[in-house]
Amino acid sequence: MKIHEKYMLRCIQLGKKGLGNTAPNPMVGCVIVYQEKIIGEDYTSPYGGNHAEVNAIESVADKSLLSKSTLYVTLEPCSHHGKTPPCSDLIIKHKIPEVVIGLKDPHDKVAGNGIKKLEASGCKVNVGVLEDECRRHHKRFLTFHEKNRPYIILKWAETQDGFLAPNKSQRTENPQPFWITNTYSKQLVHQWRGQEQAILVGTNTVLEDNPKLTTRNWKGKNPIRVVLDSSLKIPKEFHVMDGSVKTIVLTEVKEESKYLAHIDYEVIDFSKPLASQICAVLHKHSVTSILVEGGSKTLQTFVDEGFWDEARIFVGATTFENGIFAPKISGKLLETTPILSDNLSIFVHD
Question: Can you give the C-alpha Rg of the chain in angstroms?
């Protein structure tokens, strides 16, 4: 393996530690090398905190070595003042002579300006090391800035005979989730919720299941809840309306007197294609990734409009014989993993 690739792989490894906490900022990893030895490394702090380059530079015990070192980073150092000062200025301040970058930043406030600033200072800049791997790592951030929408992950569980949910006759009168998969699959989904910025469900899912949409079975932050409710049918006593987590309700109702004070409401046209409108609202709220959890109608809307990047599909050991059919999808099968009695298949939109 080439030396640059070795250290860039370490940057990606570090960057993954920021998953679920840095958004809408990218989860960048940074390594500083002196004479083929790592003397400093770190990743992006939770949103509002230091960027990876700042943390990595601060971790170097002997700052005098910085002027003779190489800095590796998965994404172009920023060149503008945001929540924090420009990372490129800090690199220049410490006279770091060489910077190796995995990927140019598509953000319109950076977009090559960080590279230009570094080169103008006399720094040697190498761009594009493990570029494909860095693109995969930064897929959420890149989708947001290149496609003006969040990275979309569809998730559902279906029975052996292809049903997403049972008929109403199989449910209790009290709205609650009807589990198809086992406890371990459920816990994995809660881990995913903590990794993505938002989670989306439709009206029927809320009325049938009264879900909380939290990460209570895994340590992690709760995602923003996004709920489709065209006519504001969902009772205010339901979990998604409790105000414990930022919640966005997409509706056709324009009468603000019907709005709850602790909920964000966005008006869209339910008679037109929904996925593109939902994406526009999420982009406005700076949501870089979302987990779409159903039900069938909502999931199929994203599939039919082509607005999805991944589909994570569980097949449980149960059968219903009748009920609501699971969505139909075509994509590239990335992997299949057994989770005790369940099987998880992950598809990517090719």
Answer: 23
Q: Which of 16, 47, 285 is nearest to 138 (CA)?
A: 16
Nearest partner of 214 among 242, 237, 250, judged by Cα: 242
Instruction: Write the pLDDT tens digit of every residue in 14-58.
Output: 999 999 999 999 999 999 999 999 999 999 999 889 999 999 999
Of 104, 48, 49, the closest CA to residue 76 belongs to 104
| Structure tokens belonging to residue 346 | 């992950």
Distance in angstroms (rounded) separating the CA atoms of residues 218 and 186: 10
- Rounded to whole angstroms, how far apart are CA atoms 70 and 74? 13
- For 249-294, write each residue's pLDDT tens digit: 999 999 999 999 999 999 999 999 999 999 999 999 999 999 999 7
pLDDT tens digit string along 322-339? 888 899 898 999 999 999
- Tell which residue, 243, 204, 200, 206, has the closest CA to residue 225: 200
Q: Which two tokens stand for residue 343?
A: 């099987």
Q: For the chain, how long is the longest CA-to-CA vector?
A: 72
What is the distance between the alpha carbons of residues 252 and 305, in angstroms, rounded to a whole number?
A: 20
And the tokens for 342? 């369940």
Catalytic residue IDs: 53
Contact 38, 21 (CB under 8 A): no
